[in-house]
Design goal:
The complex is a heterodimer of chains A (about 325) and B (about 260).
Chain A (H helix, E strand, L loop, with lengths): L11 H8 L5 E4 L8 H9 L5 E4 L5 H8 L3 E6 L11 H9 L6 E4 L4 H10 L4 E4 L20 E4 L6 E6 L5 E9 L5 E2 L7 H7 L2 E9 L2 H6 L4 E3 L4 E6 L17 H11 L2 H13 L4 H12 L1 H7 L14
Parallel strand pairs in A: 1-2, 1-8, 2-3, 3-4, 8-10, 10-12
Antiparallel strand pairs in A: 5-7, 6-7, 8-9, 9-11
Chain B lengths: L8 H11 L6 E3 L4 H11 L6 E4 L3 E2 L21 E2 L2 H10 L5 E5 L2 E3 L4 E2 L2 E3 L4 E4 L6 H7 L2 E6 L6 E2 L16 H4 L8 E6 L2 E5 L6 E6 L5 H6 L7 E7 L5 H11 L7 H4 L4
Parallel strand pairs in B: 1-2, 1-5, 5-10, 6-11, 10-12, 14-15
Antiparallel strand pairs in B: 2-3, 3-4, 6-7, 8-9, 12-13, 13-14
Classes of the chains: A alpha/beta (about 325), B alpha/beta (about 260).
Amino acid sequence: MLGVAMSKVMTMGEAISANVEDGAFLFIGGYICRTPFAAIHELIRQGKKDLTITRSNAADDFDMLIGAGCVKRFIATFLSLGLYGLARCYRRSIEQGIPHKIELEEYTNLSLPMMLMAGSMGMPFIPVKDMVGTDLLKVKSFMGDDKYKVIDSPFDGTPTLLVPALKPDVAIIHVQQADEEGNAQMWGIGGDCKVGANAAAKVIVSAERIVGRDVVGKDPSRTIVPSMKVAAVVEEPFGSHPGYTPGFYDVDLNFGYLYQQASGTVEGFGEFLEEWVFGVEDRTAYTQHFIERFGYARFRELQAEFDYGYPVSYSY
Amino acid sequence: MSEQETYIKPELMACCGAREISDGDVVIVGTGFPAMSANIAKHTHAPNAVMMQESGVLDARPKRPALSVGDPCLNPGAAMVGGLIDVMGMFLQGGWVDVGFLSGSQVDRYGNINTTVIGDYDAPTSRLPGSGGANPIGALAKKVLIIALHDTRRLAEQVDFMTTPGYMDGPGARERWGLPGGTGPRAIITNKAVLRFDEETKEAYLATFHPGHTVEEIVENTPWDLKVSPDVRETEPPTTEELRVIREVLDPTRMIAIYLKRGYV
């Protein structure tokens, strides 16, 4: 007799308050693709403080957390608004100390995913071939001399750069679907989501839809995090807007422009938070507000067309 | 006036990039110029070139121009969609990438690139996005092509912060740091010229000047003592076929024209 599945389904408010403490080290997945924006807004709403945040290629979501004053430290590779240029809150933090100057430890889109992969596999560190000879090795912040080490390879004597494993306290990811226990399934551009989630001590899974365990079992190769690592499952349709989720909705460039314009000043950014974060209680209210503000047609326009592939068979 | 005479500078620059790609090359691209260049090459002389995006995509078949390396249009139709570990780890660090395209706020005479800060690191005038995939691409791709605006602010004798390695401080530096042999920047493609790197000194020199520009103007707008190739000549304008591919196949809505506003004139 198999055990009865234990549901970990809860609201985002419950998931964040139960699992994210002030000062926590968070991996936040996404790559424009599947940004866990519902969780980002909840972190801000709950006034989380002194967070250390990481992921490769950060964007508007990290800018927002920094602008809202939630972040103390950022293990970074990159942060911009993409098409809309430099990230305004990030610049204000680093250049002017508004709301405060965050501490940065800088790596690259090769080394950081490798550090997360090492963390996910219980390795203490990992050799990488980039960064050598550049100023990225000259700048060290809160990690100090543990940012990296250069050794002579014990195999052939060549100078080898080692970077430490990262083990976040909590990973927050957004995926297409998960079951109630937390088996999380994703498709499309992955970024560092799989290694980042698996490096963490526990995972909050935000999903477009919750499906049965039997649906997961029809295509188990898509599971990137198994339920044993998952602490909370939150059903959040439209949960990565203004980012996108493949097969569900497109990236919202108009909203990206709205954020760029708003975040250009401290006042504008404050008004943005009032309207889109503090002014709505959760993602459902956010989506409702989006439709009221911009019309259902624009909401509908973002929705993906369906273009299914051939179903896969795992039968024998 | 024939179509060939009415091309815009970003189209010429995209063609300069395309001409550096050989058939069969594996190319890691960002958005904008790099994707356009690789696509022009694929539709003309290099049909077997393969493109990948660092986010995890290989051989995408987008139905609209991708606006980021994470753009949703890169997903359907691709040969493979994985993640950073796949592309940056298995393919780039694994030694499979022939061509990488990079751009930067500052590029120096050794092809080093700054995308981190303008000014002092601890109290910068301008905080820029950071390395992202640039450092590993600059370190590990066999041929690196650099896109830059040609003025004495964007080009520098020495970058404020070396985010991405070119030839670092000159001959032998990449080898000393253990970077793979035969890698490094091949050309800096600017809005005025194509610069290449001297085999001996590893310093960028003037190879070709774009139509409408002069050697004197380019030397004056380059902040180091720019050497001029004895074979210096005018850059070949886009061919009729290259322009047809850009305008009819790749970019019918002329999105490339946004680069005019960004100073690529």
